[in-house]
Amino acid sequence: MNSRLTGVGVGPGDPELVTVKGVNALRAAEVVVVPVMDTGERGRAEATVLHYVPAEKVVRVVFALNERTDRKRRETAWDAAGERVAGLLRERGSVAFATIGDPNVYSTFTYLAQTVGELVPGLVVETVPGITAMQDLAARSGAVLTEGTEPLTLVPVTAGSAVLKEALAGPGTVVAYKFGRRAGEVAEALRETGRLDDAVWGSALGLPEESVRSAAEMDGTPLPYLSTLIAPPRRADGRGGKL
Q1: Buried b (16+ CB within 10 A) or exposed e, 31-62
Q2: What residues in the chain have per-residue pLDDT under 50?
Q3: DSSP for 176-203?
């Protein structure tokens, strides 16, 4: 029987937002791998997983999740993680990898699956979708992501604020991920494009330290790294005006 690696999206942090299919996948796997930084603290994925599977089934694997400048160090960490997961697959046959949000949206799982696929012949790779931070923030803030024919643009601000500015100048809702360290630049981009008043941001969604606020309150102070922003377009056409 071929080894099976399943990427399971466990949502943005609230354990109640893991899907039934996601819980079943976590429980069916022989081992559940959770990514941790080299500093060793428990991450959101691990905390969420422990609501559904016993700790003895969970294996912590180090990734350089916050490494942006040293490519060699980052890729060395990915390779080591891939070797560790490949070993688990050879021993146990089925491994679930828990990732916050969705495994196909800016997820570490993408890199892991590529690495492990080269190490384990005949590997079967599957994913179980998860609720994303933008969906959770929309629900908690009342922001509407799309109406009618509006496009939806998702931008990681780790690519730089210029990419965000370009998106904000276009139509439809713009969602920004990982913008906390560039909060001042993001606020200025929103102001320049006339989107500041209607935009909202949130962090630690579903957790005790949750914060959901108007973007107009941003004063340039850095925010948590995993902060999410929703900047809707102006909708002045009335109900169904964008159909």
Answers
A1: bbbbbbeeeeeebbbbebbbebbeeebbeebe
A2: none
A3: EES-GGGHHHHHHHHHHTT-TTT-EEEE
